[in-house]
Amino acid sequence: MFLLPPAQSAPLKHHLLYWFILCALVSLFFSEAIAVGFIGGSLFSLTNTASSLLTTQASNALASSIVSNSAQLFEDALADVIFAMTASSTAIGDTYRQDYSTGYEPSFYGYNATSNGKFTPPPLNYTTNSTLNKVAHVDTFIRPLYKLSPNVLSVQIGFDDSGLFKSYPGTGDNLNLGTYDPRTRSWYQAALKNQASPSSFAIANPYLSAFGRGWVLTTSKVFYNKVDGTVAGVISIQSQLSEFSKLLSSFTVSGSNVAVFTADPNGYVVASTKIKFDDLNPSPTYFSYKNTSSPTFSDSLWNQIISSSSSSFNTQTSNFGSTTFTDPQTNIPYLILWKTLSIYASDAASKSGTPSWVAVGSVPISQLQTIVDTTTANLKKSVPLSIGISVGVFAGTTLIVLLLVIVFANQIVKPLALLSAESSRVSNNIGGKDLWEGVNDKDVSRSGVDEMDKFKDSFYEMVFVKAVVEHELPSFESVEVQSILDLLPDEPPQYEEADPNVYANARAPAGGFGTFRN
């Protein structure tokens, strides 16, 4: 079998090929096993963590698309209202001076405790006439402002000296609403409380309009008498919460909800994609996180949102937060995301760094799970495909390596085979032939084994020296004297006169002892 090593008597070439190929196959096998294990482990790990990864990515995407963009639209709309109110306040203060009034419109109302619930034009006394004369030019810039600002539901002006109240648009004198003094209203008091500077403003918590306009958010600001710098009154702009809610709807996805709450323990809703704000329940707690959020937030969740928004609030950063929450009423799990808004309700809140609003979004986990399941299924499909590709690459690589091993092994075996053959010649021809008889120098040169020539020369020298040393006669110093005497004849040799011809024939070899007889 191929897996068994060749027999001991097999040629050297077979041994080399066997071990080269075996080493290559073992190395490739372990490399492939490591690669397959790494690919399989990575895909398995990625599949197991896909839900967490995709949920995080979805959270970031939803925070950017739903919460962040919705909050930004709300801030932009509120900034437009603040700008319009600031411009109106400045204009009223600059034109607040005695002038002859050209009359008053139905937009003026007077505070009359005995009106029996019916508002009539203010009585013409000294105080009311003075106020009317001072604001004779208000209509020229308030009415265009009201008509050109889509986020302005109404403009209200309360005057501090007379308690007069001016409203755009005018509602006539037939509303049976009882006594109304603007100086006692929350929006008026909030502006007086937050008049730290001439640019100060205040945004009151949402409330139900006394003029039947539904739930509104009122932004108010004090304006001053230009002559003596005293407080002349407060201007406020009302915006319907339903109008703010329309801004948020364009960024919601299926099943999701986003709302803007006051960032305080009450959590009043000022905008929502789920609430229509058409319920005229006068209780402000009716529109709070406790009964209007979707899902219904628990107190602990709301405290987590408020505390994290307050502790890490920074208007220069995104200030996102997220968590998972199960609706206690429906047992549906949601992903909850929130972002603290960078706009403040008053100068006091700005100085203290206390956030005024927080945008909160909720998305059912099931909506995200669809994405997770699809991606996980795709990952699972890629596992056998990746392993199959890896095995195919392994097979191709193995074939290439085997071919290269065979080619290189043949090249390595050639000089060793030549050396083995020459060793055989040395063993067989140590006596009388040329040791390298039959070797073709051209074949040796073609195989790239030019060092064989040097090897032959060295070997010749070695054999020559060995032959000479072994065939030398022993040194005379190594022979005992007695042995030499024993070789001498007993009688001295008898010499005869030799015939020259005989002498010539019997001459001893050069360096010999000559001939002699007994």
UniProtKB/TrEMBL annotation:
It comes from Rhizoclosmatium globosum. Keywords: Membrane, Transmembrane, Transmembrane helix. This is Cache domain-containing protein. The chain crosses the membrane at residues 16-44, 387-409.
